[in-house]
Amino acid sequence: MATASETICLLSPEGVLVESEMTERLLPLIEALPEERLLDFHRQMAVTRRLDVEASHLQRQGQLALWIPSIGQEGAQVGSGYAARQQDHIFPAYREHAVARIRGVDLMRLIELLRGLDHGGWDPAAHGNFHLYTLVIGSQTLHATGYAMGIGLDGASGTGDPERDEAVMVYFGDGATSQGDVSEALVFAASYQTPQVFFLQNNHWAISVPVSRQSRTPLVRRASGFGIPGLQIDGNDVLAAYAVTRVALDDARAGKGPRFIEALTYRIGAHTTSDDPSKYRDEAELAYWQARDPIARYETYLRGRGVADAFFAEVAEEGEALAADMRRRTLALGPPPQSKVFAHVYTDPHPLIAEQQTWLEHYERSFGGEA
Amino acid sequence: MTETWTMTKALNEGLRRSMRDDERVLLMGEDIGRLGGVFRVTEGLQAEFGEQRVMDTPLAESGIVGSAIGLAMRGWRPVCEIQFDGFVYPAFDQITSQLAKQTYRHAGSQSFPVVIRIPYGGHIGAVEHHQESPETYFAHTPGLRVISPATPHDAYWMIQEAIAGNDPVIFLEPKSRYWPRGEVDLAASGIGVHASRIVRRGTDVTLIGHGAMVATLLAAAEIAEQEGTSAEVVDLRSLSPIDYGPLIESVRRTGRAVVAQEAPQHVSVGSEIAATIAERAFYSLQAPVLRVSGFDTPFPPAKLEGVYLPDADRVLEAVDRALAY
Fold it and tell me: Of the candidates B138, B158, B185, which is a domain's last residue?
């Protein structure tokens, strides 16, 4: 595994706070958090995992075309997700289910996407500025960079007012770092000094190809080559993910330019429900990472702080209830209307689309039923 | 009020007017700022509107289009310049998989008013990748609009209409027509951005083309007239959508059609038009619709471009074949 000389970790795999020169600067950010937020970290990680399991079951039962498990990556996602402010814009790849939930996106939107009812279709402005999943690897990094360029042009960052200043965070994976678009996004971000955080979840596998095929150096080192400050964190440490992202976003919002974070994490599950990781990964590696599970580690920490059994039981119950609700609502989903084929191909009227839609309606009517 | 301008001047003035009318319009591309673009289409615009609204970008076409998508999400109206036709392909994914599909993916909650200007076509004696006609790729892609002016007047108005519209537009500038002057009516465009137009009346055959080919068709029609054949000429102006109204109406009168283009023929816009005329005007046709195209080869070295590119004689050869049926 490629690690940089300093991988930032606030909470050890054993669930103990790491006190060092490195963490001295960051721990106050954790200490400043209200207890309720510390509990939210666990709640979001545990509930997302439960929903993830339920969605995988729904796929196996034929209710979804596909599911994209995020198990193992909850620490990186929940920590970074909570570091963003309401006015920030989030550009996900396609596995950031926990961040979606934090930004107020009902996971049913993802269920609908992966059931084949739409291609996303939510309005980011009405969903916590959480943009649509993008399936072409790395493409979204350029959209995020363009959006951040727009913030800069609007003078909406670097005003010194943290309540108003805006920033962008874009998620991408280790595989994506080999895409030209990611390099171009880093070039543009550095060139225009965009208010933007590049959040790389290095989950070590791009489907069946290990990260060693993508890079011979720790990926965080790519950042400095573009002139962007970068940090590598233990991505299974929700506290490090929160604190480091918080500082990076604050810097971006304050007009200090783009930042890059490499979160070392692991995709415990398959790439998607169509994948079989037993064909290419060995058991020992999986066991190594399972021992570094972000949720177990954080639970140990919370218990050490005196959080009682009742809280964990309540979260587990909430997960069960939400999973049952997801199942109920999934089974109740009807087919999309046929008209959706033609809707919103363009914003302005388009004669060819109108003509083909009319043709289809006539064709359907020719069978004697209702179109 | 009328001016006599080259197409580059008309485009420059059209861009200037769009930028004055709407402060969310910005230009981005390689060498478009201080230099004014390699064809000088954006000359003087950075001096007037500043470096933020006329951006010299890093040398990365996918980066230009991809970041334009993000700027559009933020409410800007980016106009991207791709320096030459053959340099658009590094941006192909961002254009066809991202820009073209974003409105659909968003179920209409966001519009993507991004214009991509591409100088295209041959006749300028340039090196590889600098003389191509890539329109088919974009006309084939749902979600894009594809237009190409043939005159300074249309260039002036169509660029403004493209920018004012709410959809992505591939704006193809026929670079061999950049320099001839023509009259530009500054008061009115006179016709919709996607309308095709009959630019010469005739009775025996309809010649159809777009961009630089329109001038070739008009030259062919002049020669044909001397030989006793009356050719009507239709300027398509828009390749997606295609306005078939005037075109079909023309073919119903003439009974014959020749479609000409610089692009390779196989699976091309010209092929689509030929098929559509056959479907919609079958009983009016005295002859099959004939196509005149670039050959299905890569664009050849410049000294052979005269062999490759359809000229008036190649058009007239097709006219003769159509009349012989």
Answer: B185
Range of the domain at B36: 2-185
pLDDT at position A68, please? 98
Instruction: For residue B191, tell me if it sits in a domain.
Output: no
B182 to chain A, minimum CA–CA distance in Å? 30
Same domain, B238 and B213: yes
Cα-based distances in Å from A33 to A43, A89, A232: 15, 22, 23
Q: Please, which residues have CB within 8 angstroms of residue B93's CB and are 6 or more apart in sequence? A: A136, A139, A181, B62
Q: How far is CA A324 from the centre of its chain?
A: 23
Q: Do the chains contact at B105 and A184, CB–CB below 8 Å?
A: no
Under an 8 A CB cutoff, do B142 and A345 touch? yes
B113-170 pLDDT, tens digit per residue, is 999 999 999 999 999 999 999 999 999 999 999 999 999 999 999 999 999 999 999 9
The per-residue pLDDT for A1 is 40
CATH code: domain of residue B151: 3.40.50.970
**Chain A interface disruption, residue of B49, B67, B167, most A CBs within 10 A:** B67
Q: Do B98 and A131 touch (CB under 8 A)?
A: no
Q: What is the CATH number of domain A7-331?
A: 3.40.50.970
Which residues of chain B register pLDDT less than 70? none
Q: Is B51 inside a domain boundary?
A: yes
Inform me whether the C-beta atom of residue B90 falls under 8 Å from chain A C-beta atoms: yes
pLDDT at position B215, please?
98
Q: Do A142 and B73 touch (CB under 8 A)?
A: no
Which stretches does DSSP call E strand in B38-82?
A: 54-56, 77-81
Query: Does the beta-carbon distance from B66 to A146 stay under 8 Å?
Result: yes
Chain B: closest CA distance from residue A233 (Å)? 28
Q: Which of B154, B185, B216 is the last residue of a domain?
A: B185
Q: Is the ipTM of this complex over 0.90?
A: yes
Q: Say if residue B42 is in the same domain as residue B179.
A: yes
Contact by Cβ (8 Å): B319, B223: no
Secondary structure, 3-state, A4-68:
CCCEECCECCCCCECCCHHHHCCHHHHHCCCHHHHHHHHHHHHHHHHHHHHHHHHHHCCCCCCCC
* Catalytic residue check, B266: no
Chain Cα centroid distance, residue A19? 28
For the segment A199-240, what is each residue's pLDDT rounded down to a tens digit?
A: 999 999 999 999 999 999 999 999 999 999 999 999 999 999
The model's pTM: 0.97
Tell me which of B123, B130, B153, B194 is the catalytic residue. Answer: B130
Considering only the beta carbons, identify the residue of B70, B93, B94 that sits closest to A144.
B70
Using an 8 Å Cβ cutoff, are A268 and A205 in contact?
no
Return d(Cα A110, Cα A118) in angstroms, integer. 9
- Tell me the per-residue pLDDT of A16-59, one tens digit each, with 9 for 90 and over: 999 988 899 999 999 999 999 999 999 999 999 999 999 999 99
User: Does the structure show a pLDDT above 80 at A169?
Assistant: yes
- Provide, as residue numbers in chain B, all residues whose Cβ is less than 8 Å from the Cβ of A125: 109
Q: Which residues of A touch B110 (CB under 8 A)?
A: 123-124
Which SS3 state, helix, strand or coil, does residue B174 take? strand
Is any Cβ of chain B less than 8 angstroms from the Cβ of A180? yes
Interface touch A143/B111, C-beta < 8 Å: no
Q: In the numeric block, which tokens belong to residue A363?
A: 């064709």
Option in B69, B74, B113 nearest A151 (CB) = B74
> Which residue of chain A has the CA closest to B98?
A139
